[in-house]
Design brief:
Elements (H helix, E strand, L loop, with lengths): L1 H18 L4 E3 L6 E3 L4 E2 L1 E5 L3 H4 L2 H13 L4 E7 L16 E2 L2 E5 L15 H14 L3 E7 L17 H14 L6 E6 L5 E2 L1 H7 L4 E2 L1 H15 L7 E4 L7 H4 L9 E3 L11 H9 L7 E3 L24 H13 L4 E4 L2 H4 L18 H4 L3 H15 L4 E3 L16 E5 L4 E6 L5 E4 L8 E6 L6 E7 L4 E4 L8 E7 L1
Parallel strand pairs: 4-5, 4-15, 5-8, 8-9, 9-12, 13-14
Antiparallel strand pairs: 1-2, 2-3, 6-7, 10-11, 16-17, 17-18, 18-23, 19-22, 20-21, 20-23
Helix pairs in contact: 3-4, 5-7, 10-13
Length: 477
């Protein structure tokens, strides 16, 4: 019987280990991501900032099922949420901390969800991470939103110092050391520094909070243990801030990010930011963590003008496709009423004149279309190089800007065009005896043949009329 029990325990351990998702890390070349098993990983993220603060277990299950079906890979979630996350209980009536103290997480013995005395706030975070893993999803966990550290705007309150940030980081790292589907994301919509000149321009106080973030990162590593690898990044502010500029020398930062955002209007040139990061040393993956939010009012600050309208699925496609082909290791989608999990029981945040319940917003047009970006990238092996020299005609600006990339060996190339206008491509940059071309529809994923070309000269391509946007795929054979 003793041997049977031992065999059973070994089998159970094997099954448990087999169910674990492999950890995510930077590829050896630094530009892209892979699993610990060496398989390329495409970051197709979703902003779910208020998820553990506002959703119940049943609602979490409902949410995860839809995002799995839509082929997302990463959920961006905050532990200490932005909107009264320290003082407003979650859906099960629990707060995360005792006395607003990061060194005192509110923990109770047991974790039975049927017993409110047992099931605490952190049990709820555990539930999300475990359920996401079952669905094959990774959780980019933000330890806190930036307003708990930066006093110049936001609900706050400010509670972090270097000392308690490290202790809080240790708690999180130790608790989730075995959660292989957790990715660490510090920040929370705040720049790490605000120079005196920038502070004067924005009428705020200057600061440098890198020591606090550095302490929190060190605490997470303490809790994880020396032999546990951790992909760690930072969610910065919009308006052109990039981690590669203000945090380039931070040894804990393994992936750069930016936020093209929602306040600067249409067609923010995020492709330029991504390509600039791609060329930087040391080489790190880079990602736009917040492009235009789907159904977000355009330029809502300080007051939204209805004439500006909302960001549409077309706006979302333009920003996401162009950032990825510019060298992004992936991209994050977001819906304005999903990140806040809007429902009629609470006021909407930054609304226009239309309110969409989060359950309905989950199935928006753009949310269903993001998988066609992932599918195309994963279909073709080899690392991508941004290369607009493939285009010998006008590349265009803003809403007409085209973005091209090719694989290192020249076997494949992709060119995204936001408009149904012809453009010319230099085929000499591709390998093989002939070039097979087709149009990939970013709305449906369907293919439309664009011909086979035998010569290696410049060739003009005319997108199909029923666009407006298309992706030209070129295969060297």
């Amino acid at each position: 019987m003793r041997y049977l029990c031992s065999a059973f325990l070994l089998l159970f351990a094997f099954i448990t280990t087999a169910q674990r998702l492999p950890r995510i890390m930077a590829q050896p070349n630094g530009h892209f991501l892979q699993t610990a098993t060496g398989k390329p990983f495409f970051w197709l993220g979703d902003t779910n900032w208020e998820l553990v603060h506002r959703l119940s277990r049943q609602e979490i299950d409902q949410f995860l099922a839809v995002r799995k079906q839509q082929r997302f890979t990463v959920l961006q979630v905050v532990a200490l949420a932005e909107f009264d996350g320290l003082t407003q209980p979650n859906a099960h009536g629990d707060l995360p901390l005792l006395n607003l103290d990061p060194t005192q997480p509110a923990l109770t013995p047991g974790n039975n969800p049927a017993d409110s005395a047992q099931y605490d706030y952190w049990d709820h975070v555990d539930y999300l991470i475990k359920q996401a893993e079952k669905m094959g999803l990774y959780v980019a966990l933000l330890p806190t939103w930036g307003d708990k550290l930066t006093k110049d705007w936001g609900a706050g309150p400010v509670i972090f110092t270097e000392k308690n940030a490290r202790i809080y980081g240790q708690f999180l790292g130790k608790r989730y050391a075995r959660a292989t589907n957790v990715i660490w994301m510090l920040g929370g919509d705040r720049p790490a520094t605000l120079t005196p000149a920038e502070a004067t321009r924005r009428k705020r106080e200057p600061y440098d909070h890198r020591p606090i973030w550095r302490a929190m990162a060190a605490g997470i590593h303490d809790g994880l243990g020396r032999n546990v690898p951790a992909l760690m990044t930072y969610h910065t502010w919009g308006g052109g801030y990039r981690t590669s500029q203000e945090m380039a020398d931070e040894p804990w930062l393994t992936m750069n990010t930016m936020q093209s955002g929602h306040g600067g209007g249409h067609d923010i040139p995020v492709w330029d930011w991504v390509m600039a990061d791609f060329a930087k040393k040391p080489v790190k993956p880079t990602i736009d963590l917040e492009p235009n939010y789907d159904d977000h009012p355009v330029n809502p600050w300080p007051k939204w003008d209805p004439k500006n309208g909302y960001f549409t699925a077309y706006d979302v496609r333009k920003q996401t496709w162009r950032s990825v082909l510019a060298g992004g290791a992936g991209v994050t989608y977001g819906h304005h009423f999903v990140w806040q999990f809007y429902s009629a029981k609470r006021p909407a945040i930054n609304p226009g004149d239309t309110l969409i319940p989060w359950q309905q917003a989950l199935r928006s047009e753009a949310a269903g279309q993001m998988q066609h970006l992932r599918n195309l990238i994963e279909k073709y092996p080899g690392n991508r190089l941004p290369d607009n020299s493939l285009i010998t005609s006008e590349i265009g600006e803003k809403g007409k800007h085209l973005q091209a990339c090719r694989t290192e060996n020249g076997r494949y190339a992709f060119i995204y065009t936001p408009v149904s206008e012809s453009f010319t491509v230099d085929l000499s940059k591709l390998s093989g005896q002939r070039i097979t071309a087709y149009w990939h529809d970013p709305r449906t994923g369907q293919k439309t043949p664009a011909g086979t070309i035998q010569d290696r000269q410049a060739h003009e391509f005319q997108p199909p009329a029923n666009g407006p946007d298309w992706v030209l795929v070129l295969e060297g054979r």
